[in-house]
Write a structure and sequence with these properties.
The chain is an alpha/beta fold and 280 residues long. The chain has a domain of 171 residues: Rossmann fold. The chain contains ten helices and ten strands. A six-stranded mixed beta sheet has the order 6-7-8-3-9-10, with helices on both faces. It has a four-stranded antiparallel beta sheet with strand order 2-1-4-5. Helix 3 crosses helix 4 and helix 3 runs parallel beside helix 5. The longest helix has 16 residues. It is globular, with a radius of gyration of 20 Å. The protein starts with 22 loop residues before the first strand and ends with a helix. The relative contact order is 0.16. The structure holds adenosine-5'-triphosphate.
Length: 280
């Protein structure tokens, strides 16, 4: 096997093919002005994700994961740093980037007065997918995500899980090479969650590059090829599970994750400090 990359050591990847990175993030910084001063949400993050790889971007609430994804999508402008998706620069080639990337998020809304079929075909049209291809894809995704029972019903009135499955299906209508997943299993039952994990594994086999943000560390450990553990805007640890195990001496992601958290964030420490301060 030969590599077209020359500037650094070969990363640990799931896919056999050595390729150019599908996601290439360099020195990304995002600062927000807040009432109390500057908040650095993302602080010098660099990462690469390759075709055929599922990258687990993990971190506690507020670590900076969603902000990082939003900058990859071009929804938020970085304070500094660059993002390239499938070779295109997010800042200077935003349309090319949007053609090649998709966000699957539990917090995305659906047009409540449209049916899943209408939403999926509308999205396909926006992305320039030919009509016959879009119709076939909608059928395939309806089967895959078990939408058949409500494909032609308005989204208003559907359950959280049903809406989430429609959300997932509509974000895959243009079949992008890069898929960003932000807590895709939030609100789903066990069957729905498993479906997402199985489909993510399928995307990997198809050679897609997937970034998967989740708090379900057990599932992440099973699904992802490599991991980036974020803490307070920085990527503190990165590598395959075997790399991380070797570096941390810990077997499970949960323990590595907790080791990153400062001692004062535990409930026991908070209770002790409250008692010490005389608060009830
Ligand atoms: P979670 O797991 O809770 O979704 P996260 O890792 O995705 O968290 P972000 O949503 O990226 O975290 O937020 C990172 C930090 O940036 C947080 O402190 C958040 O309050 C702050 N933040 C995010 N967006 C804004 C904004 N538009 N204005 C000000 N602060 C923001």
């Amino acid at each position: 096997m030969s590599s077209s990359r020359s500037d650094e050591a070969t990363p640990n990847i799931c896919s056999d093919a050595l390729a150019e990175p599908a996601v290439d993030v360099r020195d990304l910084v995002k600062e927000f002005s807040t009432a109390t001063g500057i908040l650095v949400a993302v602080n010098g993050v660099s990462m690469r994700v390759y075709p055929g790889e599922v990258y687990g971007l993990l971190g506690a609430n507020g670590a900076g994961k969603t902000t990082t994804l939003r900058m990859m999508l071009g929804l938020q402008r970085p304070t500094s740093g660059t993002v390239r998706i499938a070779g295109f620069d997010v800042a200077t080639q935003p349309i090319e980037v949007k053609r090649r990337v998709s966000l699957v998020s539990s917090s995305s809304g659906l047009y409540q007065w449209l049916t899943p079929r209408e939403i999926m075909l509308y999205l396909a049209d926006l992305y320039g997918v030919p009509d016959d291809e879009a119709a076939a894809r909608a059928e395939m995704l309806a089967d895959l995500f078990d939408l058949r029972g409500f494909m032609d019903r308005r989204c208003a009135g559907m359950s959280t899980g049903q809406q989430q499955r429609v959300n997932l299906a509509r974000s895959l209508m243009h079949d992008p090479p890069v898929v960003l997943m932000d807590e895709p299993t939030r609100g789903l039952d066990i069957v729905g969650s498993r479906r997402i994990f199985e489909y993510t594994a399928h995307l990997r086999q198809q050679g897609k590059a997937v970034i998967f943000c989740t708090h379900r560390l057990d599932e992440a450990q099973r699904l992802c090829c490599r991991f980036g553990l974020m803490f307070r805007g920085q990527l503190k640890l990165e590598g395959t599970l075997a790399d991380l195990q070797q570096r941390t001496g810990r077997e499970h992601l949960t323990d590595m994750f907790l080791d990153l958290m400062p001692a004062e964030s535990s409930m026991a420490a908070r209770l002790t400090s409250l008692q010490g301060s005389g608060e009830p």
